[in-house]
Structures are given as C-alpha cells and as structure tokens.
Design brief:
Its cofactor is FAD. It catalyses: L-aspartate + O2 = iminosuccinate + H2O2. Pathway: Cofactor biosynthesis; NAD(+) biosynthesis; iminoaspartate from L-aspartate (oxidase route): step 1/1. By secondary structure, this protein is an alpha/beta fold. The protein contains 15 helices and 19 strands. Helix 1 packs parallel to helix 5. The C terminus is likely disordered.
C-alpha cells in the first residue's frame, strides 16, 4: 500500500462507499476523515440500486406520528419506539438536506413533493427521484459532494480485512489494495458496508454485499442483534440475471396486481392485498410457486401505458427480456433484499466495542424491528449519518503508536456459503433445515479460507434463527408458525455462536433435531 497512507494515521476511518458511508463522511466535515471503498464509489452499493425512495412525512395530510405508527406496526413488536420516533421525526429535514446537496427529487407542477405509496404506509410519503432511479440520483449527488470535499481522503480499491482491537477498544484497521496490506492506526472506525444479500443465491443486492462489515465487527468482539430477520422482497424479476433486478413496490402502489399463470389474483382477499407487509406478500408468492405456479406482476391496467415513463429502469430491463409491462405481465419471485439485523448500536451509532460505530444496513438501530417498513432504509442511513458523525467527532482521543500490519485474512468469497444459506434460511424455515445449515457452515467458519468470513456471518444468522422458536416479521418458522405473546430482540456474539454451533456439530452422528438450543 502506498506510503502516503502513513499521513492518515489517527484520523477517523469510514469503511463503505454507499449512502451511509458517504453521508457520514460529509457530516464529519470539516474534520479530516478517511473513506475506504473496496470498489469504485457506488459500484457495489445497494444504495445505487434503490428504486423505492425515502419515506418521510412530507405531505399535508401526513405527520411523523403517523409514519411512526406505520413503522411500529410493520416491525411486529421489535422496534425500539424511542429510536424509531427520533429517526422518523428527523426524516423530513434529511430530505431537505439531500435536496440542498443537489438531489433532484420528483416534484409536482406546482413545485410540491411528488409522493408515492408503498406497502403498509397509511399515507403517500415516499419521496422519489427520476421515478424508479432514486438510489442512483442520491448516490450521484453524494459522490459528487464527497469528491469535492477537501476534508475527505477517499481511498478506492482499498478493502478493510480486519480490525485491530486491544482491551475491547479499536486501535486500527488492516487494509489491503493492489500494493499489499497496511495498518491504518486509528481509534475511530465506522462500519457502513451494507447488507448480506450476496450470501444467498437469489438476491436483489450487489454481489459484493455479503456481510463483510458484520464479520469485521464480530471478529472484533462486537455484539450483533436480530440477525435472523431478513426481508425477502416479493417482486424480484424472475429471470436469469444474478443479482436479480428489482420491481419496486411502488409499482404495486400504482395499482399493479399479483397473478399466477392461470390469471388468478391470489392476494385479493388478504388484508391490504398486494400492499400487505412485505413478509406476508413474499410468503404468499413463495407458496404459490411451491404449488407449481409461476407468479406475475400485472401492470397492464395500472399504470398501463404510463409504465415506461414512470419506471424507466424497470422498463429497460424488462425490454431486454422481451417484456413490455404495458402489455405483458412481469414474472416475479421473492429474493433476499434487506437485513433488519446487524451490529447492535445505540442512538449515536456506537457498538459494544469502544471506538467502533456502524451506520446504515450494517447496523441494527431498532428502527426496523422484525420487518422493515418500505423505504425506511435509505432514510435511516441519511438521518443516522449525522448522529454517528457527531459522536465520532466528540470521541477524538490520544494519538496511537504506529504498528506494522499483521498478515491479513484472505479476500472473501461467499460461493460455498450461498447454497447452504439459501436452502436453510429461506422465506420459510424449519428446525431441521436450519440445523443442516449450521452443520455445513461451522467447519467453514472455523477455517482460514476465502469462505471463512462469509460462513461466519451465515453461521451467526443461522444460530439466531435456530434459537427464535416463533414466527415474526421476516423470520417464519413452519414448525413454530405463531408469534410468541411477548417479543424481545435477539443478540449474539461470535463466541456464543461458535459455542452453540459446536454443540450441534458434534451431535452430527445423532438424529437431526436431537440437539437442544
């Protein structure tokens, strides 16, 4: 790694080039900060692909209290109400801040906000940019702002491989680029690496998002929370492309309906119909497919001829597949979309390791609970970045001594993990399948191969799912189909996950299901 990085010691380091990382870096200004991005900015960020937009109470008929009520209802009893309230009340100001940074949000002819409707929202409160290109437009503006900000040192093509920790406190980052490894000495690190979709065969996330930040935090000793809650988007485009293109929920908000290959509208009698919470819709689509049917999103009547104008990104990839949404139903299926769990943080983004913060999808703030309300994720990343930045600025400490980098772990490859997690931790789960996943992941997580970090994250997810013997939000157990009377967040550390997995792995010769959690 180039020697110029030596001048960056003792500066805060932000790991991740998506919306959460970029906004945190901008909010740190004018304090100098280092931003590490494994790829070119935005190239592997889920934020870039976000179609839905940001949820914020911007309409005259709306209020943060209504937004909060919808968020709590979707979260199925696991939201932290105080945290959720603080975030949704800050959302309108965050939208205004993005507009000042140059994000071209969609407006009505009179200049007011053009607000869309998505599942489980009681009001039109989704702020869009360029129709279904909201993430791309936000990332364009944030990347431009970061590149012109003199206090941000941007290091693209640099990957954080491990954190240096002493006495439960961060002391540095071991990073790698084409020139090799180097230790960046710092007592302040922000993880903003996004989600875990790349751990599964079918996901709407970029392939490079497979929980690297969670692995960094877990190996550093941080507590992780609610890992079992994974949101499957019900309408990923059912074609050969991987990652899978997303057909945003806003299309259903515009009146599109779900049908099977016989033409039956199978969600019609469900509360909320196609705009029921995502977990309910995803399970309905999953079951229909399990019965041997294909499933389609029918937008021929609504939005009909307006489809290409309103959703140019979706229209383009449909056209490449020979489909015109104005005249043809769009084939869809569930796919991993968002992780409600993550690194356990407080209201300022602080983890249980001193000097380690998390922001965005890699964090678990308590906003989403068991099931994220549509379009609350980009909003959470933008809002919380300000609070994380304020906390990091206030935590500046004594300079750290220089040190050489230890040999870094190998670059991660989730290929061996994908089929294991996809089979055992899908839309519908049951004990035997989860146990098989744990047994398959445990030896990989205990090794030192390219699969080790992805397997470690997958193992922690599987153990959390194994322990939660109920169905709630994004976690559905067919052997425990009901929710327990009381809800509590889960938490897990690497040591506890390995202990639980070892006990189960060592019973492999016994009948599956004989081990007790």
């Amino acid at each position: 790694m180039s020697t110029e990085i030596s001048s960056l010691d003792n500066l805060p380091v932000i790991i991740g080039g998506g919306a959460a990382g970029l906004m945190t870096a901008l909010q740190m200004a004018p304090e100098p900060v280092v931003l590490l991005s494994k790829a070119s900015l935005g190239a592997e960020a889920s934020s870039l692909w976000a179609q839905g937009g940001l949820a914020a109470a911007m309409g005259e008929d709306d209020a943060p209290a209504l937004h909060l009520a919808d968020t709590l209802a979707a979260g199925a009893g696991l939201c932290d109400e105080a945290v959720a309230s603080r975030i949704v009340h800050a959302a309108p100001a965050a939208v205004e801040h993005l507009a000042r940074l140059g994000v071209a949000f969609d407006r009505r002819p009179d200049g007011g906000w053009r607000l869309g409707l998505e599942a489980a929202h009681s009001r039109n409160r989704i702020v869009h940019a360029t129709g279904d290109g909201t993430g791309r437009e936000i990332m364009r503006a944030l990347i431009a702002a970061v590149r012109r900000c003199p206090s941000i040192t941007l290091l693209e093509g640099v990957e954080a491989r491990s954190l240096i920790v002493e006495d439960n406190a961060i002391k540095g980052v071991v990073a790698v680029n084409a020139q090799g490894p180097r230790a960046i000495n710092t007592g302040r690190v922000v993880i903003a690496t996004g989600g875990i979709g790349g751990l599964f065969l079918e996901s709407t996330n970029p392939a490079g998002c497979f929980g690297q930040g969670l692995a960094l935090a877990a190996r550093a000793g941080a507590k992780l929370s609610d890992l079992e809650f994974i949101q499957f988007h019900p309408t990923a485009f059912d074609g050969p492309s991987r990652p899978m293109p997303l057909v945003t929920e806003a299309v259903r908000g515009d009146g599109a309906i779900l049908i099977d290959d016989t033409g039956q509208r199978f969600m019609a009698d469900q509360p909320g119909a196609e705009l029921a919470p995502r977990d309910i819709v995803a399970r309905a689509v999953w079951r229909r497919r399990a019965e041997g049917h294909r499933v389609f999103l029918d937008a021929r009547q609504r939005p009909g001829a307006e489809f290409a104008k309103r959703y140019p990104v979706i229209s383009a990839f449909c056209k490449m597949a020979g489909i015109d949404p104005a005249t043809d139903p769009i084939p869809v299926r569930p796919a991993v979309h968002y992780h409600m769990g993550g690194i356990a943080v407080d209201t300022e983004g602080r983890s249980t390791v001193t000097g380690l913060w998390a922001c965005g999808e890699a964090s678990r703030t308590g906003l989403h609970g068991a099931n994220r309300l549509a379009s609350n994720s980009l909003m959470e990343a933008i809002v919380c970045a300000q609070w994380v930045a304020e906390s990091v600025r206030a935590a500046s400490g004594d300079p750290l001594k220089a040190r050489a980098a230890d040999a870094p772990p190998p670059a991660s490859d989730p290929s061996a993990v994908k089929p294991i997690l996809s089979q055992g931790l899908g839309v519908l789960r049951e004990r035997h399948g989860i146990e098989r996943a744990i047994r398959g992941l445990y030896p990989l997580a205990n090794g030192r191969s390219a699969a080790s970090d992805p397997a470690l994250v997958g193992l922690m997810i599987a153990v959390a799912a194994w322990r939660r013997e109920e169905s709630r939000g994004g976690h559905f157990r067919s052997d425990f189909p009901d929710a327990l009377p009381s809800a509590a967040p889960s938490s897990i550390t690497l040591a506890k996950a390995l202990d639980a997995a070892r006990d189960l792995f060592e019973t492999e010769s016994l009948p599956v299901g004989s081990a007790q959690p």
